[in-house]
Specification:
This protein is α/β, with parallel strands linked by helices. It has helices spanning about 40-55, 70-75, 90-110, 180-190, 210-230, 235-240, 260-275; strands at about 1-10, 10-15, 25-30, 30-35, 60-65, 85, 120-125, 130-135, 135-140, 150-155, 160-165, 195-200, 205. It has seven helices and 13 strands.
Length: about 280
């Protein structure tokens, strides 16, 4: 149900098989552990905890939320006694919208009835913060663009970055801003990196970092161009639909098959934000 990978000594990733290849991580110290993000469904998050507590025999002392989205933060409640860390804006968003979104989700899927929103106890407002676990330094880096509250966790000694959703196989901008995302991707490009754990999708290796950043920035350029072209068309909505993910040179099997949906959300969102209205599918 979850796919586990060791990316450095005492550093693990856990990837969901059922929800858009979302990733969580863990850094294991001598006596206690840090979890980076929780997964989409309670059972998956509980499997992460079970691995750390039963197999590795460590207690989870901190949980870091890279941002407030449900598939990264709703599992906080499954680590009772742990301190939750996030950007201050993540806490604000969870406090404002968490309960309402959770109630709506629990109505559709009863597995969420055992979920509770747990707000972060420690927040970062600006700059950086470091959490030391044994020999490892976990440096928090602000990485907005997918959402305003995005942070990455850079393990200094291992040169491993947990990037959160600012880095995905297909960028997702409906809660963010393409310009801000570009800046965050460039900021990542300035780090020395052995591995990047994306918010969703497979681990990026050192040799792929530069080309992978370029690929994401090229995608942002491309969708901005498509949205401008669409406005010139008699049927902008149809035009956007035709420019599907494959027409943009990317595979629809990415993100466990969610690539096309995410791409269409991006196009419609960007069209609305540039042109101030929904793309019309037919001329009335
Ligand atoms: Zn997200």
């Amino acid at each position: 149900m979850i796919h586990r990978e060791r990316v450095a000594d005492d550093v693990y990733t856990f990837q969901s098989d059922v929800y858009a290849q979302v990733n969580a991580g863990a850094v294991i110290g001598e006596d206690w552990a840090v979890v980076i993000d929780t997964l989409a469904f309670p059972d998956e998050t509980l499997a992460v905890r079970e691995f750390i507590e039963r197999e590795l025999k460590r207690k989870v002392r901190y949980v870091i939320n890279t941002h407030y989205h449900a598939d990264h933060s709703w599992g906080n409640c499954f680590f009772p006694g742990a301190y939750i860390l996030s950007h201050a804006l993540c806490r604000d968003q969870l406090a404002k919208f968490g309960e309402k979104s959770l109630a709506a989700a629990a109505e559709v899927d009863s597995v969420f009835q055992k979920t509770q929103i747990i707000l972060p106890h420690l927040t970062l407002e600006e700059g950086t913060l470091e959490l030391i676990i044994g020999e490892k330094t976990l440096r928090f880096i602000e990485l907005p663009g997918h959402s305003p509250d995005g942070i990455g966790v850079y393990i200094v000694e291992d040169e491993v970055l947990f990037a959160g959703d600012v880095w995905m196989p297909i960028p997702h901008i409906v809660d963010g801003d393409p310009e801000v995302m570009r800046e965050s991707l460039k900021k990542i490009g300035s780090l020395t990196i052995e591995n990047v754990v994306q918010g969703h999708g497979d681990v990026i290796l050192r040799g792929e970092v530069i080309s992978s950043i370029k690929d994401r920035i090229d995608y942002l350029d491309l969708i901005q161009k498509i949205v401008l072209e669409a406005a010139e068309d008699d049927y902008p909505g149809e035009y956007l639909k035709e420019k599907d993910i494959e027409a943009c040179g990317r595979s629809r099997i990415l993100l466990g098959g969610a690539a096309e949906e995410i791409h269409q959300q991006n196009l419609r969102h960007l069209y609305r934000s540039v042109h101030g209205e929904d793309p019309k599918r037919f001329v009335s």
